[in-house]
Specification:
single chain; 483 residues; mainly alpha; two-stranded parallel ribbon; two-stranded antiparallel ribbon; 4 strands
Length: 483
C-alpha cells in the first residue's frame, strides 16, 4: 500500500509577497522532491491566486497533470478506520477521568467533550474542502490546511504567518505522537509487571521497560507502511476482543450508583479534561481518511461517516468510563486493565492482548514524527547517508520516548499531560483559528464568537491541565504522591 502525501509549496502572484512563501526553514523551496521514506512523495505546488480573484475563477490556477490517487476507500472502510483511530489506550484511562470529575459531572462532561471534538473535526473537513476549491488541489493534510488558510487570506499580515502555522501544527503533531509513544511504554510495562510479579515475584519496573525496548527498536526499523499492515490488523483484533473481555469483568457485581461520588472537586477537573481530550485522539486521521474516500462528501452531514463513527466511539467511551468507575470507584487505576485480577486466566489474557495491541501500534505512531522530521535532516546530510540518518532518527525517537516513560512511570499523569498540552491544541484551538482565518471577512459575528469560545476552552484546558499534571508529577518525584 503506497502513500502519497503532498506538501504544498506556496508561491504568490504578487512579486512583493513571493519571499513570504518561497522560504521554508533555512532552505529555499523548489519543486524538487525531498528524499524521504520510500512511500512518501513531496513534490506538489500550490499556486495561490491574486486576492482580488474570486473563488469561482480558481480553475485558472490549477496544476495540470496532477495524479489522482488510484486507491480509494468505501464509507464502511472509513468508518472502520475512524473507529480504529479513536480507540486506543485512551479509552482504558477514561474511568480514571471520571474519578477526577465524579460519576455525574464526568459523564456529562464526556458528552460535551465529544460534541465539541466532533464539531472541530467537521471544521477541519469543511475548511479542507474549501481550501481545496480555492487552490484546485485534490487533498490537503492537517499541516497543509493550516498553512494554506493563512496563505490564501486577504490580509497581508496573516499571509506572513503561513509557514509559521504549518510549523506549529507539525510541532504539536510530533509532540502528540511522541506523547502517545511514551504512554505506550508505560502502559505495556505496567501490565507486564502485574502479570510477571504475580508469578515470579517483584521485579523493578524499569527492567520490564528495558526488555520491551529491544523489540521496539526492531519494530520501528520497518520503514514501509505496507509491511506494518498485518500487525496493525492484528492489533485491532486484539483491542476489540480485549474490550469485550473488559466489559465482561466490569459488568459483574456492579454497586449502586449512589455509592459513587457525583462530583469530585474543582481542583481535579483539569486532570479530567486532559485525560478526556487525550482519548479523542483521532482528529489527526480525519483528513487523511477524507482524502482517500471514494465520495468525500459523505464524510459530512448529520448521518454522514464522521458523525456515525464518532457516535459509536462516544458511546464506547461513555460506557467504559461509566461502568469502569462504577465498578472500581476511587481505586480505579490509570488503565482499567490494571484493576483486573491477575490470578484469573481471562484477566491475564486481556492484559497481554492489550499490551500486544499497543506494542504493534507503536511503530505507526512513530511514523508520523519521522515523516515530519526526516526531510529536515536529509537536507543536511549527503545522499549516501540518507538511510543511515533515517534509522538514526527512528532509534533516537524510540530512546527519547523510552527515557521519558522511564522518568515518569505514572500512566494517569502522563496521559493527562499529553492530552492537556498537545491534544487540546490540535483538537480544539487549531481548528477554531483555521476556521476563522479561512472565513476571513465573510466570518459572521456568531461564527467568530463560537470559535473564540472553542479557543478559550482549549486554551484554559491547556494551561490548567498542564499545570495540574506537572504539579502532580513533581509531587510524585518529591515523594508526596507515590500511589
Amino acid at each position: 500500500m503506497s502513500m502519497q502525501e503532498a506538501e504544498p509549496l506556496i508561491s504568490c502572484d504578487k512579486a512583493d509577497e513571493s519571499s513570504v512563501y518561497q522560504k521554508r526553514g533555512s532552505g529555499v523551496v523548489s519543486d524538487a522532491s525531498i528524499p524521504s521514506s520510500p512511500d512518501i512523495v513531496r513534490a506538489k505546488k500550490i499556486i495561490i491566486p491574486d486576492i482580488s480573484i474570486s473563488d469561482d475563477d480558481s480553475d485558472l490556477f490549477s496544476d495540470a497533470g496532477e495524479d489522482v490517487p488510484d486507491h480509494k476507500i468505501s464509507n464502511t472502510d472509513t468508518i472502520i478506520h475512524l473507529l480504529k483511530g479513536n480507540i486506543g489506550p485512551g479509552i482504558l484511562a477514561l474511568p480514571d477521568a471520571i474519578k477526577n470529575s465524579g460519576l455525574v459531572v464526568g459523564n456529562i462532561g464526556l458528552v460535551v467533550m465529544a460534541t465539541i471534538c466532533v464539531h472541530c473535526m467537521h471544521i477541519l473537513v469543511n475548511t479542507s474542502q474549501e481550501l481545496c476549491r480555492r487552490t484546485n488541489l485534490p487533498f490537503l493534510t492537517y499541516s497543509d490546511v493550516a498553512e494554506t488558510c493563512f496563505a490564501t487570506s486577504s490580509s497581508s499580515r496573516l499571509r506572513a504567518f503561513a509557514s509559521t502555522a504549518r510549523t506549529v501544527i507539525d510541532v504539536f503533531l510530533c509532540i502528540t505522537q511522541l506523547g502517545f509513544c511514551c504512554v505506550y511504554f508505560v502502559f505495556i510495562s505496567q501490565n507486564l509487571q502485574q502479570i510477571f510479579d504475580h508469578y515470579y515475584g517483584e521485579i523493578n519496573y524499569h527492567i520490564y521497560m528495558a526488555i520491551i525496548l529491544i523489540p521496539m527498536l526492531f519494530l520501528v526499523s520497518i520503514r514501509n507502511l505496507k509491511y506494518l499492515s498485518p500487525v496493525s490488523m492484528l492489533a485491532n483484533i486484539l483491542q476489540f476482543i480485549g474490550l469485550g473481555i473488559i466489559f465482561y469483568y466490569v459488568f459483574q457485581d456492579l454497586p449502586c450508583t449512589w455509592n459513587r461520588k457525583a462530583f469530585a472537586s474543582i481542583g481535579q477537573l483539569p486532570l479530567f479534561f486532559g485525560t478526556a481530550i487525550y482519548a479523542f485522539e483521532g482528529i489527526g486521521v480525519v483528513l487523511p481518511l477524507e482524502n482517500q474516500m471514494k465520495t468525500s462528501a459523505d464524510m459530512k452531514g448529520w448521518n454522514g461517516v464522521l458523525n456515525t463513527s464518532m457516535v459509536i466511539v462516544s458511546c464506547l467511551y461513555i460506557a467504559v468510563a461509566f461502568f469502569g468507575y462504577l465498578k472500581y470507584g476511587d481505586s480505579v487505576a490509570g488503565s482499567i486493565t490494571l484493576n483486573l485480577p491477575v490470578n484469573e486466566f481471562m484477566a491475564m489474557l486481556v492484559k497481554l492482548m492489550m499490551s500486544l495491541a499497543v506494542f504493534f501500534t507503536y511503530a505507526l505512531q512513530v511514523y508520523v514524527p519521522v515523516d515530519i522530521i526526516n526531510p529536515f535532516i536529509q537536507k543536511r546530510v549527503s545522499p549516501q547517508n540518507y538511510l543511515k540518518a533515517e534509522y538514526a532518527l527512528r532509534f533516537s525517537l524510540v530512546l527519547l520516548t523510552f527515557a521519558l516513560a522511564a522518568a515518569i512511570p505514572k500512566l494517569d499523569l502522563f496521559i493527562s499531560l499529553v492530552g492537556a498540552t498537545a491534544s487540546s491544541t490540535l483538537a480544539l484551538m487549531a481548528p477554531a483559528v483555521i476556521d476563522t482565518v479561512t472565513q476571513g471577512e465573510r466570518c459572521c459575528w456568531q461564527r467568530a464568537l463560537k470559535n473564540v469560545i472553542l479557543f478559550i476552552i482549549g486554551f484554559l484546558g491547556f494551561i490548567f491541565g498542564s499545570y495540574v499534571s506537572l504539579r502532580n508529577i513533581i509531587n510524585y518525584f518529591i515523594g508526596e504522591d507515590k500511589t
